[in-house]
Design a protein that fits this description.
Length: 413
């Protein structure tokens, strides 16, 4: 398969002003419908508030109980993903096109008439607190929490390390207030992809697009406080574990930065596929770990470079030393053309898979929208991949792989 430029979503503005982006065709009678509300956890005044508000939407409405919502989803073989990110709250429906209209009515109930029952909230809080307790014994999750804390800095609203008391602090009044401030047509963006016809679009307009609903004003552009990263090493003790988790990285460039796409290429070459430099050295040659990866994690428009692995405690230092050897190699030695071609072909092959089907393409365009870049950036990435040179990668390594800026988190014994 030859990967060509993607057709960009069609922009349709609903009568009430909601922007909707549409990708038609494919997916054999399947539709994906995304509703995004600006805000997310960057605007919450308590940790976890955005997550709990979004999660509680399915816990009962004026006309449907939580059980009835679940039963309807099961009956139609559909599911709804609900999660919060830095600058948005997400609700995603996956279903067959022929079932879209009755499920749209369920979504309308959830979004316009939630009750946030106290009893259900207590159950959700207890369940999530139990998951938190279990996850607090998993070194990879603990290391990620503290990596993000160091990434943003102590006291930063996005650097808070969640604790058990944060779950107890959430109240129904908090959730109602957050819902009233951020859920509504003036603060909403929609994406729909797959097999979509005019009858479905008419039903969508009737449910969400004709009249104003919900909050009365749009969320102002979120001004995220500048991070104050904590470079250097932090040791986080985790008892009763056989391995330690290692995170190494730093706050990288925004998605709008001219280096962004070629730096993504460099991340793949370093640790983004099975034959990458980190895998070849640290797994294959030295046997320090089963898996190690380098990636860019998105936090809204910002991105963090992160190398992550788990290893036996006695291999932590040797593993970290080999990571720095690979970073130093990229700074000191030009990458050979043959390796660039190998990585280029790997990325193009992965993108063929990633872009297969309208639902997957919709995910790509949603991520571009969340990053604050235009949809055409998706095709710009394809162009950048084709033009990467050894000089580009060598310059990026020299500019960004500076040890004084690097965060090291080790969670375990």
């Amino acid at each position: 398969m030859i990967l060509d430029h993607l057709v960009l979503p069609q922009n349709v503005t609903m009568p009430n002003g909601i922007p909707m982006y549409r990708l038609d065709g494919g997916d054999k009678g399947i539709v994906r419908f995304d509703i995004l509300f600006k805000g997310g956890y960057a605007v919450q005044n308590k940790p976890l508030l955005a997550m709990f508000t979004n999660r509680m939407l399915r816990e009962g409405t004026e006309n449907l109980t939580a059980a009835e919502i679940s039963q309807k989803l099961d009956y139609y073989g559909a599911w709804i993903d609900m999660y919060s990110s830095q600058n948005c709250n997400h609700i995603t429906l996956y279903t067959m096109s022929k079932h879209f209209i009755p499920l749209l009515q369920v979504l309308e109930e959830m979004l316009k008439h939630p009750l946030f029952p106290q009893e259900n909230l207590n159950t959700v809080k207890n369940n999530n607190k139990s998951y938190f307790s279990i996850n607090s014994r998993k070194v990879d999750i603990v290391s990620q929490r503290y990596f993000e804390n160091s990434l943003w800095g102590e006291g930063h609203p996005l650097g808070h390390v969640v604790n058990a008391d944060d779950y107890d602090a959430i109240t129904r009044d908090d959730i109602v207030e957050y819902y009233n401030d951020y859920y509504g047509s003036c603060n909403c963006t929609m994406f729909i992809s797959g097999t979509v016809d005019s009858v479905m679009l008419d039903a969508l307009a009737k449910s969400f697009g004709n009249e104003s609903w919900g909050c009365e004003k749009e969320c102002s552009p979120v001004e995220v406080v500048q991070p104050s990263p904590l470079s250097g090493r932090r040791m986080i003790p985790v008892s009763d574990t056989m391995q330690s988790a290692v995170k190494i990285g730093f706050m990288a460039m925004d998605a709008t930065h001219p280096d962004f796409y070629k730096f993504r290429f460099l991340c793949v070459l370093l640790g983004g596929y099975f034959g990458s430099r980190l895998m070849s050295n640290i797994r294959e040659d030295n046997g320090y770990t089963y898996h190690i990866a380098a990636e860019l994690d998105a936090y809204g428009c910002r991105n963090a470079f992160m190398i992550s692995s788990e290893t036996a405690t006695e291999y932590v230092e040797p593993l970290i030393n080999e990571v720095y050897k690979e970073l130093d190699r990229l700074v000191a030695e030009p990458v050979e053309i043959a390796e660039i071609e190998l990585v280029r072909n790997y990325i193009m092959g992965e993108l063929c898979r990633e872009y297969e089907g309208q639902s997957a393409k919709s995910e790509v365009f949603i991520n571009a929208w969340l990053s604050g870049v235009g949809f055409e950036s998706v095709n710009n990435y394809l162009d950048e991949i084709k033009t990467v040179t050894p000089a580009d990668l060598n310059r990026l390594a020299r500019e960004y792989f500076k040890k004084e800026n690097i965060i090291e988190i080790i969670a375990g014994k």
